[in-house]
Amino acid sequence: MAPKKKAGKGAKEPEVKKKKGGKKDLSLAYKSMEMPVNEETREFYHIQIRDLEDRLARYQRKWDEMAVQEKLSRQEFEQLANNKKEIVAFLKRTLNQRVDEIADLNEQLQSLQLAKEMEKDAFEAQLAQVRHEFQETKDQLTTENIILGGKLAALEEFRLQKEELMEKFMLMEDQLRKQEGEYKDYVHNLEKKSVLDKDRLRKEIIQRVNMVATEFRKVATSQMWDTTKRAILENNTVTLQLAQISQRGLQLLRENEQLRGTQGKLSQELELLEDSQKVMARHSRGHQKIILMLTEKCREQQQGTAEAERLRLLLSQVEQNLLQLQKDNQALRTQRDQLNLQLERQQAETQRLQQELTKEQKVRVSLETALAQATSFLRDIMQMQPEGEDGDLDTMFQLQRKEMLQHLLVMLSSAMVLSPQLAVSPGQEPQPWGPPEEGQRSNQPLATGSLLQQLSSITPYQPGDLGLVPRQIHIPPNPEDLRLLSHTTRVGGFRAHSIPQIHTSGSAKKFKKFSLPGISLLSK
């Protein structure tokens, strides 16, 4: 849109001059177009235009990054605000729950204290009664214990004799059981060994017979006598081994008979011991009855003592529960204080984030002001025209334009110094002109606002294209690819694919391939 406006303005100015000056102005304009242009001046203007376009693109990218950062900061602030609200609500709800729990615990504590006092009085009365009964029972049992002391002495002697006899009996039983086990193990081992020896001998005989048969088939008739002799010798050896095993079996049978005789003697001794045990058992039954009576009385006394001890333990347990409830109440109070401190820290953190957001907004406002001033300054520079009417290059105009560009550079540098945290890092290089990549398309948001509308009115130009002449009609790029890009980035990508040519009309057609920066071209 900007080139068309300037082109329209350039078209209106010749009409005014035509009305005032007539053919004189047209002749001066044609003469100025025919004047040769210095190549260094043209290159200087081209470099200035490219530099300004690069700076404008960098500022636009910085603005896009700032917009994204501001959006992220706003989202983080909203998230923090929501988190703060949720935390405050949770803490309030938790505090109310704790207060309710403390009230319930206080009520329970009061009820437990009342119950404790009542139970304490009842237990004291019961304890006094139990002590009185215990004293009476103690006196009665003391007299009975004196009477039964003599009886226990006699029973103690009988018990000692019985223990001696039982120990002897147990030793003999253990010895008999041990001998039986050893005998059984010995017989079992002998039987197992004999079976294993028989199997081994049978296998060896079969193996050797097979070996002899194999050798018999292989060797010649001259070797048959040696083989037969060797087989006979082996047969004799096996016969001797079998005889030795038979003798060993007979010896084991004799030992078995001896062990059986020993077992008979031990069984007779066991019968005698059992008879004596029965006699002792009959004598001990009377003593056991007396012991049971004494045991029953002692058990009753122990039960009374245990009941008193249980009541004492129950009282101490109630006191411990009371102390535990007091500790829990104190812990809940401490937790409430900690939650209050945490809430204060969250509020301080929220205030700090609010201050940082305010600072970021101030920096953004200052950068927006600097960009707006730079935009206005660039528009003024692009709209400047030389005042000379003879078509010569105005040196004062060039110096003034250069001074304005330097002033613009100083102003933008001061803005970057004021906001160093948003400046481009030293390792980050400016992106070249051209179509952006897919990652950049998806990450750059759609820039809106009055500042972007002002920036959208400025169009970057190709070398030699000042926007004074309408451009040739061309096919625009796909809008779906440029939908998510800012205006300056879209124009930069569009410029890399389309190189417009300067068209003049009338007598200026022979200057079709040249551009005169800083000189207004009059077209009909």
TrEMBL record:
This protein's record includes keyword Oxidoreductase:
no
Main site of residence? Answer: other
Reading the lineage from the top rank, the first entry is Eukaryota
Region (Disordered) location = 1-25, 422-444
Positions the record marks as coiled coil are 42-182, 308-363
| Coiled coil keyword on record | yes
Q: Give the GO cellular component terms, alphabetically.
A: cilium
- Which InterPro entries does this entry report, sorted A to Z? CFAP157 (IPR038844)
Per UniProt, subcellular location reads as: Cell projection, Cilium
Q: Which UniProt keywords apply?
A: Cell projection, Cilium, Coiled coil
* Family to which the UniProt record says this protein belongs: Belongs to the CFAP157 family.
Question: What is the protein named?
Answer: Cilia- and flagella-associated protein 157
